[in-house]
Structure formats: structure tokens, C-alpha cells
Amino acid sequence: MEINPLSVKRLSEYADVIRESFATVAQDFGLTRENCPGHTSFITNEQLESKIENGYHPFGCFVGEKIIGFVSLTDMGGGSYEMNYLSILSEYRHFKYGKALLDFCKEKVKEFGGNQITIGIIEESVVLKDWYIANGFTRTGTKKYEHLPFTVGHMKWESQT
Asked: Rounded distance, CA 83 to CA 56, Å?
């Protein structure tokens, strides 16, 4: 397993990984294009491409030549980085690839001179929330948006070094 930076040349590959990975979340929470068109499982290649700008860092988790996972970091300024789309293809889950990506992001943020990672998750996903807490994140609040059929939970991790 290796984690490497990705370029726009591989966007269609990592877009597929993101959509396929988040499709299980959509299924678990009954999210559809009708009740939650902005959910990550429905993200388009064009939407992903629009995120590529200065301060955006996409990374792939590879087994051999195959991208089996994805994560991105975005520089929010002031040492804070937003982490998005942490995803592992379902057949590769429970082998600690997700934790490897998360730990990689923590180290990468420190390498970039940052000290904090922020995330937003489906608050009702207790298993995911507990996983992030077990990996050093703390809850910072929740927000209910009218256009979403779930509550967004906000969390952060702060470097202790």
C-alpha cells in the first residue's frame, strides 16, 4: 500500500472511488438524488475539478496500480486544513487503509506547517463519529441545513506537537 499525490489526469479514477465508496453511505442513510442531490456519492467529475486550485491537495491510496482510497486536504489558512472525501472502496475496508490515510493527513498537515484538521460528517453516523473520536478528533458542533436530510457534525483534530 502506498499513498501518493494525485493530479487532475487521474481525476476520473479517483472520482469513481469517491462515488463508489460514498454510495454505501447513501444507501445506509436512504440518500437519493431526489432528497440529497449534493451528497458526495453523486459528485460529478466537473464538481471535483472545480475544487482544484492553490492549496488543494488530493491523495490516493494505492494497492499496486489500483486506487482503492482517496482523501483531500484544503488549506483554509491560519494552519487549518479541511479534510474531505476520505474514502476506501468497500472491498478494501477493515484493513486499516482508512486509518493509514487519516494518519498520512495528520503528518502531511504538520509537514505543510499546519496544526489542525477540520471535517464535516453525517452526525447520525455514530460508528463514523466514534471512529474519528478514537483517532484524536473532537466534536466542535452540529448544524442542521434545510436542504439536507441529516445533521452535519463538525469535528477537528489538533496537533499536539
From this structure: 10
User: How far apart are alpha carbons 151 and 161 in whole angstroms?
Assistant: 32
- Name the grid cell of 105: 493527513
**For 42-55, what is each residue's pLDDT tens digit?**
999 999 998 888 78
Decide if 138 contacts 118 (C-beta within 8 A): no
**Per-residue model confidence as pLDDT tens digits over 132-142:** 999 999 999 99
Render pLDDT for 5-58 as a digit per residue (tens, 0 to 9): 999 899 999 999 999 999 999 999 999 999 999 999 999 999 999 888 878 999
What domains are there in the chain, each with its CATH number? Answer: 2-116 (3.40.630.30)
User: Is the confidence at residue 102, as pLDDT, over 80?
Assistant: yes
Signed CA dihedral, 51, 110, 128, 137: sign only: negative
Q: What phi and psi, each to the nearest 5 degrees, are found at residue 13?
A: -70, -50
